[in-house]
Design goal:
The protein is mainly α. The chain has one helix and no strands. The radius of gyration is 17 Å and the shape is rod-shaped.
């Protein structure tokens, strides 16, 4: 594992940010869809 540490830091940070964003937004998606169908 330690021998493969030559990635760029920006790509690693971007993937971490996208993973956190997905973890936060996935539980909120059904709620947003529910509000959309309730208001429509």
């Amino acid at each position: 594992m330690a021998s493969n540490e030559n990635f760029k830091d920006s790509a690693s940070k971007r993937h971490l940010f996208l993973a956190l964003l997905a973890l936060v937004s996935m539980p909120l998606l059904p709620m947003l869809m529910g509000w959309y169908t309730y208001l429509a």
